[in-house]
């Protein structure tokens, strides 16, 4: 065991797969791919009116929350990732062997109040990423819109044969009702049939309308950012367990993204405790809720709190069988991304080489069929 720990000296010793490398697509990238009738409704081909559209109507569809934006912290996103060349540069910078590319702007898709237009943006983004990025040999997730589950299921069916699509992403921010409800079952059924895992990702924190209501009373970014990611994911995950989603879709894997790790063992024990007293509230479950989480749910690492405390970090990972369920992610190029070797110095104190390889790449290779 000790020899295995010492054998891992750097990230170059094993395969590294980033399970959340963000693109930074902009409106001008996506609008040319918007299909009828919305390209006509929004006049996206009329250059004279296009600026008015982008600065007006579309900015309301993708709103920002002024004083709650990350730039108020004195830090901002580092680099654009909008082209194959940008992706290659990012992967070299981060010493990555592979990555699952995820949306940037379209993480806000769940906040679009025009359901049909949200579906239009879904298709436009997927066509853009296929045409611009994935056709160059990279791997990514398609995005689906929770407002139109049937349309999303059709989109999954449309892209099933695209070998570079490795996951279905649901932008979880602002979604109502939560993702355990029956309304979303067409998405889960289509993803299960396609053999693709479902990723659930938070929206950008600085967006008005996120879980569970607007961030009323908040004045600073940090007071939103601390509780937001884990709180939203717990909300979705709790309803999914209560409504028996993993039982209904036993061959479907779920990937919970960008919410850290400290809340996971707490949630598992909290839900097990509640379930022991109120099993009738979750009648489809046939075993402990935490067992379903270990069997079908996976978690990406960023933001890894406690990185300077190896004892805390390793103990937390052990408490939810993290060597099998945790997958490395950077969240690059967001301002708070994790460097590739951020976990390694802590993991080497407790985990052997096989376990570290699982976290940094092998589990992702299995989940995403890489």
TrEMBL record:
InterPro entries membership: ACMSD, Amidohydro-rel, Metal_Hydrolase
GO CC field: cytoplasm
This protein's UniProt keywords: Lyase
Keyword Signal: no
Keyword Lyase assigned: yes
Domain Amidohydrolase-related, residue spans: 18-370
A Pfam family annotated for this UniProt entry: Amidohydro_2
Gene Ontology terms: biological process: secondary metabolic process
Origin superkingdom: Archaea
SUPFAM superfamilies xref list: Metallo-dependent hydrolases (SSF51556)
A GO term, aspect molecular function: hydrolase activity
Protein name: Amidohydrolase-related domain-containing protein
Annotated source species: Natrinema salaciae
């Amino acid at each position: 065991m000790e020899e295995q720990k010492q054998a891992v000296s750097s990230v170059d010793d094993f395969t590294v797969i980033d399970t959340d490398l963000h693109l930074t697509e902009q409106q001008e990238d996506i609008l040319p791919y918007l299909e009828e009738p919305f390209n006509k409704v929004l006049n996206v081909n009329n250059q004279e009116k296009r600026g008015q559209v982008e600065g007006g109507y579309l900015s309301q569809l993708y709103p920002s929350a002024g004083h709650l934006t990350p730039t108020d912290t004195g830090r901002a996103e580092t680099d654009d990732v909008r082209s194959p060349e940008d992706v290659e540069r990012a992967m070299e910078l981060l010493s990555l062997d592979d990555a699952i590319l995820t949306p940037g702007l379209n993480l806000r898709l769940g906040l679009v109040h025009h359901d049909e237009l949200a579906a239009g943006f879904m298709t436009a983004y997927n066509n853009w990423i296929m045409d611009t990025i994935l056709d160059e040999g990279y791997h990514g997730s398609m995005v689906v819109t929770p407002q139109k589950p049937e349309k999303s299921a059709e989109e999954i069916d449309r892209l099933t044969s695209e070998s570079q699509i490795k996951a279905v992403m649901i932008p979880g921010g602002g979604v109502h009702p939560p993702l355990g409800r029956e309304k979303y079952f067409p998405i889960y059924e289509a993803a299960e049939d396609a053999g693709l895992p479902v990723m659930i990702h938070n929206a950008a924190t600085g967006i008005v309308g996120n879980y569970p209501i607007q961030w009323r009373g908040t004045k600073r970014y940090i007071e939103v950012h601390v509780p937001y990611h884990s709180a939203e994911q717990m909300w979705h995950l709790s309803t999914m367990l209560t409504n028996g989603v993993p039982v209904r879709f036993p061959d479907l894997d779920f990937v919970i993204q960008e919410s850290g790790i400290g809340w996971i063992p707490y949630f598992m024990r909290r839900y097990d405790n509640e379930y022991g007293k109120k099993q009738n509230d979750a009648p489809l479950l046939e075993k402990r809720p935490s067992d379903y989480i270990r069997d079908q749910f996976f978690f990406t690492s960023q933001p890894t709190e406690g990185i300077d405390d190896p004892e805390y970090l390793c103990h937390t990972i052990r408490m939810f069988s993290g060597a099998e369920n945790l997958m490395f992610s950077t969240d690059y190029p967001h301002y708070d991304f994790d460097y590739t070797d951020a976990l390694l110095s802590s993991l080497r104190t407790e985990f052997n080489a096989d376990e570290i390889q699982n976290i940094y790449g092998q589990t992702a290779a299995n989940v995403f069929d890489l």
